[in-house]
Amino acid sequence: MAKVRLENIKRKFNNVTAIENITFEIPDGQFWVLVGPSGCGKSTILRTIAGLETATSGNLYIGDLLVNNVPARQRDVAMVFQNYALYPHMSVAQNIAFGLQMRKVDSKVIQQRVETVARSLALEHLLERKPKQLSGGQQQRVALGRAIAREAQVFLLDEPLSNLDAQLRDDTRAELKQLHHNLGITTIYVTHDQVEAMTLADRIVILNQGRIQQIGEPQSVYAKPANRMVATFLGNPPMNILPAKYKNGNFLVESQVISCPMRIRDVLRLSEGQVVDLGIRPEDLFINESQNEEIAALTVEVKLVEPLGRETLIRAGLPSSSVQVNIQQAGVMRLHLGDRISLGLDLEQLFIFNSTTGDRLY
Ligand code: ATP
Q: What integer best gives the mean pLDDT of the chain?
């Protein structure tokens, strides 16, 4: 195991800056997830740690060793790619053993280690098969096995579950978590899937356009997103963003009035006419059936009702924007498309963002 430290890492491809100002330290044995939309620089960071890319500037340490100029094969990291990159002509056992054979490890030791790894990943009965005789999930476990067998100090996983179907993906995700718990190897995991990020990570690093937006424990980033990008990236369906104008202690949302809670007024001291973005998660909206006027609510038109069993998703429209609502009950089926309903907002859960920079104000 080893800690991994990135100091001001930057990578430019000709005139495109893929990543910039990347600084963080992963303590020994932790599981960190790099997450963000396509093209945000996740893989570039991972490949730089692996030694498959060279940083344009900045320093990279594995353990206490500065590895900027250490070639990939001497870095003692094991990488698992999205496509598993197994050797098709080799059996499962040979695939797992390959890295050890290259390092001229004693053949008895190799055999023992292959058996131990195969047992921990439930691959014992598949050792003689070739990769094409395995399911996607089994191939994925072999790729992990090959990484584990090498007993590297750091695991680097690049979207390792993205080729699996939904059920297998959930199962393998849980296995990965268990495996990390058992092995305790420092792991850096890249995904654009926020459920994987939330469930696996000790810490998540949210990236956008090559820069770190926020680093933190998944729950605390979810509860206190640094900005609008983070807020809308984590959560499914995503947080609703409603442009609003502050006036006389209220927010005007497309000419409808929502009163601004006192605690927010006290802290923010918004100026008359100031434009902000209100943020409210779909689960913090509810149908104001009693039409209670004391409740902060917006009148919206129902556009779509999606029953999902235990919960129901509703898409609703204001004249020029739309909101998504997640009601934690089955069958809000009395609703019909085109109905106008009063949608209550749980103001305790309201977020406020600077409409220009996107920074969270509250
Ligand atoms: P995805 O989720 O789609 O895999 P990512 O977050 O992993 O994306 P990267 O692959 O790290 O993103 O790419 C970051 C940026 O760097 C992108 O704009 C990409 O086009 C650019 N980039 C990556 N590799 C190269 C390269 N070899 N040459 C030029 N540009 C590159």
A: 92
Q: Residue 265 C-alpha to ligand 1 middle, in angstroms?
A: 42
Q: How far is the CA of 43 from the centre of ligand 1 (A)?
A: 7
Beta bridge partners of residue 13, listed in sequence order: 16
Report the DSSP beta bridge partners of residue 186.
Answer: 154
Which pTM does this prediction carry?
0.91
Is the C-beta atom of 34 inside 6 A of ligand 1?
A: no
User: What ipTM was reported for this prediction?
Assistant: 0.97
The full set of domains in the chain, from first to last, is: 4-233 (3.40.50.300), 240-354 (2.40.50.140)
Q: Strands 275-280, 154-158: parallel, antiparallel or unpaired by DSSP? A: unpaired
Integer Cα distance of 141 and 206 in angstroms: 27
Residue 60, token pair as written in the block: 């990279």
Mean pLDDT of 44-71: 96
Instruction: Write the CB contacts of 74 (distance below 8 Å, at least 6 apart in sequence).
Output: none
**Nearest-10 crossing angle of helices 136-149, 107-120:** 140
Residue 258: beta bridge partners? 251
Indicate the pLDDT class of residue 332, thresholds 50, 70 and 90: low
| Residue ID of nearest Cα to ligand 1 atom 31 | 13
Relative to the CA of 11, which ligand 1 atom is closest?
16
